[in-house]
User: What shape does this take?
Amino acid sequence: MTEDHGEPAATVAPADPGSKGRVVGRYRIHGVIGSGGMASVHLGRLRGDAGFSRVVAIKCLHASFTTDPSFVEMFMDEARLAARIRHANVVSTLDVVASGNELFHVIDYVHGETVSKLLSAARKAGEHVPVDVAVRIVCDALYGLHAAHEATDEQGQSMGLVHRDVSPQNLMVGVDGVTRVLDFGVAKARGQSRTTDAGRVKGKIGYMAPEQLYGEKADRRADVYAAGVVLWEMLAGKRLFEGEEGGDALALVLTAPIWRPSIHHGDVPEDLDAIVLRALERDRAKRLSTAQDMADSLVTAVAPAAPSKVAAWVKRVAGSAIEQRARMMASLEGEADDGASDEPRPAFRSLLGDTTTSSMAVTQAKRARSRWSRALALFAVVALLSMAFLVWVGRQDGVAPPSLETSAGPSGSAPSPVVPVEPERTASASVLPAPSALPPAVLSSPSPPIPRPPRTTVAPGAAKPSCDPPWEIDEKGHRRYKRECLR
Assistant: This one.
C-alpha cells in the first residue's frame, strides 16, 4: 500500500514497555517509525558514559540488500555526502555502523512529519496549505539544498553535489516549524565512488528534471526544478504529473502543459505563479539558476510564515501521528538503563568515527599548541626580515655590519671596517645618510653599532698622513678608510 505521493505507508511499531530493544554497539534500536524500498527507520538511543543518552533515528538497510555491493555502496555514499553538509535545514548524519552483515545509518531524530504525509492529511481534511506556510517550508528546503550544493571536500574543493531526489517524502517538517532535507541516497557528487548504471533512472519520475530523464548530467538546477514541483503541489493541492509508471509518466513530465497553481488555489498571487513557472522551465538555461536565487525570489513575492505558524499547522493536520511518536520518545527517555553498561555489546565498528565528546580537551590542547607554533613562526619571520633590512641599511650607508668579512690592521690594533668600492661617492660624502633620507621605520628603531677604530697619536716630527682621499684600496678592491683620517 502506498500513500497518495508514492511513499510507502510507514508501519509504526510502538515501543514495548517491557523490551529494551536491540543493542548494537553504543546504540539501542527500538520500534520502526518508517519504511522504504531500501531501508527501515527506527527510533533509537545513543548510550554514552556517565548516563548520557540521546534519541536518534537509525536507518537500517534491508537484509536483502546487504549482500548487493551496489546497494551497500549507495547506502554508504548517502552517509558520506550527508556528513559533509552542515546546515540547520539538513538532517545531520551522526554515524554509520557496521555490525556483522548489517549496516546502520544514524541520523538526527526530527520530531515532525514529512511533507508527503502532511499534504495527504490536508487533502483528507479538504483544505489547502496556507500560501505563506507553503513558501516557508519550500524556502527552508531551498536553504538546505543550497548548503548541499556549496558543500566542499576535505581539501576545500567544491563537491558539485546534487540531491537528485527532492520530493515531498524527503522533506521533514518538525514540530518546531523548521523544514529539513533528508535522504541523499541517490545524490551525486564529483569523485563519488559509485556511478549510475547506464539506462537506470535514479529518483522519482514525477519530480525529476527533464535533463535527468534524457540521461544528461544533472547540476543544481535539477534540484531547483524538483523544489518547483513540490511548491506547485503544495499550492495547488494536487499532483502536478499524475501517475509515475512507465512511458506515460515520462511523456507527462516531458510534454504535458504546466498551468499556473493559482488556477487551483485562488489565494496564490501572480508574482508567486511566475516564480513557480520559472522554476519549472523544461529548458534549464531559462530556469532559476540556484536554490538561493529561488528562495530570495519567493521571499520577495510572499512573506513566509513564521516557524511558530508552521508548527501550529503541522500539529493540527498531523497531530495524532506526532502524539503517538511523542509517547514512544517519552517511553525511551524515561526508560531506566539498569545494567546497560554491563551488557555484552555485539562487535561493531563506526565508519564515520567516534561521535562522543571525550576528545574535547585533547582538541583544545592541540589548538593551544597550534597557536603557540604560529606565534613562534611569525616571530622568526619578523626577526629574519629585520636582520635583512638592517644589512641593507648598512650597505646603503657604506659600512658593513660586524658580522661581515673584516680585515685585520697592524698587530695589536682593532680591525678596520671593510666597505665596497663606490666610485660615485666623493671624499666629502657623509658616511651616514641624512635623517631625512631614512624611512620612518628606521628613524624609530635603534641602528646597529658602527665599529670605530681606536684613537692614535702621531709621534712628534713624523710626517702627517695624507687624507685626500681619506681611504685606500686593498687587494680585494675594497675601500679601507685610513684610521688617522677618522679621528
